[in-house]
Each structure stands twice: as structure tokens, then as C-alpha cells.
Please model this.
Amino acid sequence: MKTKAFLILLISVLCLSGIFAQKSGKKLTITGTVTDADNKPVANAIIMIDNKNTSSLTDQQGIYKIKVKPEAVKIGVITFGLGIKEEDIAGRDTVNFSYAVVSEEPVDILESPGDQATDVGYGNLKKKYVTNQINKIDGTNKKYASYSSISDMIQREVSGVRISNGQIIIHDSKDLFGNIPALVVLDGVYIDGIPDIAPVQVLSIEVLKGSAAAMYGSRGFGGVIIIKSKIQND
Model:
């Protein structure tokens, strides 16, 4: 009788543990509003989770609702013309975004000789002011001479990047209409798709994601690939 009671108690404990584990892994629902500098709602803003675009958009009232995994850290919003805003989730179920307050940091002045700057197309931006990672490939490295194409270089050297139908997709960026390809800039000129130049002709490649690509406006929603060739710099 005692053995039966013990088994029943053990099964009950295991069931409760399973239920608790399921609850602890339950997705968190976050809601909020997005407003512009005039406190007006911003519609069709894309919601980002941990620097990755999602299919969730704000409605005409600037309201969004999204479910996120419990391990998610940051939530952000990217809008046409207004750029990107990010906040720590920190267990919150309501996160509002407002573009009413704009904090500008100097982007072309190095505070000390040791500060490293990155050329992202709109002047030199110090890396500590960029909240998202910038991946840079040094084309002068001899190891790239063995690569068959620029696509090969980028896919092997930068995580989260893939090639689809001749377009570069970063972190599976997409909207309601499908994938959003990265903007490609070759020697300062916007081009469609991947340039047909050999890896040995590449001086450098920079892959900009999230906030780092926001300065290119709506064209940079899917990230930006900045390619500098040796041809231009000869």
C-alpha cells in the first residue's frame, strides 16, 4: 500500500514538473505602440526581435502585437525614413516606441587616436556607436584568392547570410511579401544583385545589419553589402 502511494506521489511530482517546464518555455506576448516625432501613430513599421526582422507590422493606429521566445533579449522597430529603435525586453509585456526624442552622437570625430572607425557610406561611424555587428572581409588576404565568387566569400565568412536567386539575404530578412534582399553597393554605386567580379579584384567587403544599415533608409531594410574593388583604387 505504501509502495502504491509512493508511486502515485512520484507520478504527481513528475507531472507537475512537466507542466512547470512547459510554462517556463511559454512564449511571451508583447504589445505596444509606435509614434513619430509629432506623437502620431506609425503604420507598417516592422518589428524586430534580437536584430532580426519579423513578419509583424504595426497597424494603422501604430499598434503591434508579437509573441517572442522566453530567451529573447531585445525588441526593435524599423520604419521608413525614421530608422531603428531598440529596447531591452527584460520581461516586459508592453514596450512602446517613440521617435519624439532623437539623440545624436558625433559620427565623424574620433575621441582618441585608438578609436576605430568604420566607413559605412555616410562618413566614418565609430563602431561603439553601432549597436549591431558589422562584418568586414579584407580582400587583400591571400586566402580569398581560392574562392570561386564573391557569394562564396560572403557565405563562408559571415554567419547568417545566404544567397537566394542571385540575391543576398541576411538573417532571413523578410516582410509580408517575402524575403528582403540586402542592398549592394559597389564602389559607391547601388547595383542589383551580386557583382560579377572575381574575388581577387575585391579590396574589402562590409556587411551591415540592423541599426548599422538604417542610415540607408528603406533601401537598407534587408541589410547592406558594401564592396570596394581594387579596380577603382588602382
